[in-house]
Amino acid sequence: MDYRKLGRTGLKVSELCLGCMAFGPGIGFMKGISAPERRAFKILDRAVDRGINFLDTADIYQGGISEEIVGRWLTRRKNRDAIVLATKMRGRTGDGPNDEGLSRKHVMAACEASLRRLRTDFIDLYQVHWPDPKVPIEETAGQMSRFVEEGKIRAAGVSNYSSDQMDSFARGGRLSTAQPPYNLFERGIDKDILPYCRDKGIVLLTYGALCRGLLSGRMKPDTEFAGDDLRKWDPKFQEPRYGHYLDAVNRLDAYAKERHGKTVMALAVRWILDRGVEVALWGGRHPSQLDAVEEAMGWSLSEEAFQDIGLILAESIPDPVGPEFMAPPARP
Question: The whole model's pTM is what?
Fold first, then answer.
């Protein structure tokens, strides 16, 4: 495992970060694709064994249960100082009309709640999950800066922000990281956010490396998604696009095996890290899924490989679509 600097924090993090969204009983769209606590503990243990020292969760994941599970695991392992802990907040404190937003009041309440659930005195990387157009970004950023001064967090980051929104955040406080979606099928950040972060020295911590399982190599034309599974609403999983994306996966898998002796899963992760992204999130619902980590390490893609992959994508997917469907509904 390689380790990279987390901006100007002085921290070094594994270039793969364990995404903990699946930890919990399976609430809402996570029903059927979650990892109960006992299995989550095994996933966390396996991640550490593979050299991963960076964990990412959020207060919205399974209603805060993901954070609670991570907190109990940290208490059991007694290894808080060895782990770089990241979480995200939505600024929701209840179900009332004034119980949501990124005002100073809600940000303060959200941070205290996450600290309590995570059973820690500080959060290494505290991120704003989605922007709130009804609250000045500078107000949110200012409170995040106060958290740094108070020692409650070590660094502030954002997720799903545009470059203009990151500019506004930086006017209110120091911005260390950005967490946008990024994978072989969702490359929107190439145009703006990736070069912006390079120019500003903002660390990229990207999510969705396997595009909700599409790039795992395990999806089939007859794969069914039950209940509230997010993929029932993802345009990529609807025909005729689904067939196009599966064709791309099959061709990428054949290319990865022939040219690199790797699986499409390893190719997908390596592609992200070789594009200039410092850290890629790697989620898991079973400990065995962490075994593939080593296959993505210790090699790199050439410029010729990038061109070959680009050609496969262009030929296989005539009507690509991004991750825009995941954005939360506008706050009333």
Answer: 0.92
